[in-house]
User: Fold this.
Amino acid sequence: MDFLSILLPHLINGIALGLLFALIALGFTLIVSVMEVINLAHGSLFALGAYFAMVIIDPNLQNAGPIGEWYLQLPHIARYFIALILAPALVAVVGFVLEICLRRTYGKKKEYGLLLTFGAALVIEESIRLTWGPVEQVLSVPAQFSGAFLMDGMIYSTYRIYAAIFGVIAIVLVWLFLDRTPYGAIIKAGAHDSEMVRALGINLPRLQLLVFGFGAALAAVAGFILTPIWGLRPHVGIDAVIPAFLIIVLGGIGSFWGAVLGGLLVGLTVGLTGAFASDWSLLSMYLLLIAVLTFRARGLLGKKTALEA
Amino acid sequence: MLTAKTKAPLTTPQMLTFFAVLLTYPLWAQAVGLYEYLGIEIAIFILYALGFNLLFGYTGLPSFGHGAFLGAGAYAYGLMQVHLGAGLLPGLVASIIAGAIASAIVALFLSHRRGIYFALMTIAFGQIFWFLAIKVRGVTGGEDGLLNIFRPTLNFGFFEISLKPNIALYYFVAFVLVLVTLLLWRLVHSPFGMAIQAIRMNEMRARFVGYRVWLIKWSVFTLSGAIAGLAGGLFSLAQESAYPDVMSLHASGLVVMMTLIGGGFVSFWGPVVGVIFYYLARDLLGASTEAWLLWYGLLFMAVMMFSPEGIAGAWGRLVRRLRKSPAAEKPIGEAAE
Assistant:
C-alpha cells in the first residue's frame, strides 16, 4: 500500500474540517468587515445552532397532541433537513438581538464591541449549560449519512465525505449570494465604506442587522454539521471559534477566498498532523499562523484595513 | 496637558485609601462575611490586573493571552519548589524571570503589530502556552498540574515566619502588592509612562516624534509579563499547586473583563476596582445561584452598553456632575486620577 492511499482518509478529514472552518470564518469575516466587531460569541452561536438542531430533530413531544405525533412520525431525514433550515434561522434571531445590543458600542473603542461579545459568549454558554446540562449530548445523524465504507483497504467515514460535500455547497452558495445578487453587492459595499452606503440611501442599521444574523446563521450551520464529529458540549464553541480567528488572520481580514484558503490550510494541517502526532495536531495550526504572520503581516490575501489603526 | 502631569504626586488619597483597605482587611473581613483566603486571591489578581493594565489601558494593546505568563510564573515557582526545594524568594524570582522570558519571546513577534492582528496573535500565543502546559506532562503534570507545593517559611536570618497560616500569607502578598503598586505608579508617571500613552493615542505620531515604538511596545509587554509571572508565582504559593486552567482563553479573557469593568481605560485604579468587583460578584452571586456567570455576563454586557468606561468612568462622571464642571470624559493620562 503506497503512502498516498494511507494519507487519503486523513486528507479527506482535513478538507472536510477545513471547509467547515471556512464556513465559520466566513460568517465571522462578514461581521468584522461590515460592523468592525470581532465577534467572540461566534463560537457560542455555533454551539447554540447545534443544540437547537438537536432539539428539532429529537424533540420531547410526548404530550403535544396530534401535531407532535405527526411530527415524530416523519422520517428522521426529513426532521434533519427541517432542523438544517430552522436551527440557523433561530440562531439568526439570537444574532439580531446581539447586534441590537452592539449598536451602542459603534463609533467607540473597538475593544468595547469585542468585550460585549465576550460577555454574550459567557451568557450563551451558561444558558446552554443550564438548559441542556454539562454532559455531552448526541446530535443524531440520519442513517443515510452515517457509517463507513471500505475502499482499497482503507476505512472512510461516510459522514466526513458528506460534510465535505456539504461544506463545498454551502461555500459556493455564500459566494453566489455575495457575488451575484444585489444584496451581496450592498453587503460588500457596506464592508468597503459604510458611510458612503448610507449616503446612497441604503438603510445601514437594517443592513448591519441582517449581516449579523446571516453570519450567526452560518456559524449555526457549521455547528450543525461539525458537532456530530466533535460531540456536543456546552463549551464546544471555543473549539470552533479559535480556528475561525486563526483562519481569518491567516487568510487576510475581509477576504472571501482568503477565508476559504485559510480554512483549507488549517484543516489540512490539523488533519495531517492528526494522522502522525494526534496529541500535537491542534498546536500545528497556531504554529502555522505564527509562521505566516511573521512573513506576511496581513495574512495571505489581506489588504490594509481600517481595523489596524 | 501631558507635560503638566510629569510631576505626579508621590501618593494620592486614592492610593492611601487602597493601602489602608489592603492592610486592615483581615481585621474586618470576617465581620462582613468574607474570609482571609479570598483576600489573598484578590490581592494576587489585583497585582496581575495592574500589570495587565499597563499594557491594556496605558499602551492600548489588548492582550487576550496574558494567562500564559501567569501560568509560566506559576509553573516556574512550582518546579523550583518541587524539584530544587528552593526557598520562597528564589522561587518568586524564578517566576518573575519565567514570566519575563515567555513574554519577551512573544513580544518579539508582536511588537510590530497593532489592533486586531495584535489581539489575535496574543490569542494564538496564549493557546500555544496553554496547550504546552497540558501536553508536556513530564514537566507540568498535564491537566492535573503540579501538586503539593507546600508553603515555605519566610526566613529573615534572625527570625522566621511560616506562611502556612492564611493571615501570614495575606500580609506577605499585600506587602508585595504595595511594592508593585508604588513601582507601577512611578512608572506610568515617568517619561516612559508618557511614551506608552503617546503610543496608545497615536502610534504613528509617536514614531514620528522619534520614539522607537517597537522597542517600547516590546519592553511594556515584557514588563507586564514579568508582573503576571510574579502574580503566578504568588498564586501557586497560595494554591499550593500550579495547573493549566489559569492559562486558558477563558481565564485570559476574564482578566481583560475585570480590568475593563473596573475602568482600566480611564483610571490607574480601574483594575483594582474591577478585580474586587469580580470576586465579590462571584462570591455573592455564586452563593445564591449556580448560574452566576450568566448574571455576571449579562451585567458585563450592560456595562459595555451603558458605561463602557467601567465603574471608575461612571464614578468620574458622577463626581463631575456633582461639581457641575462641564469637562468631557478623558482617558487616563489626561483625567484626574
About this structure: Chain A touches chain B through 48 residues (CB under 8 Å). The domain at 6-308 of chain A is CATH 1.10.3470 (ABC transporter involved in vitamin B12 uptake, BtuC).
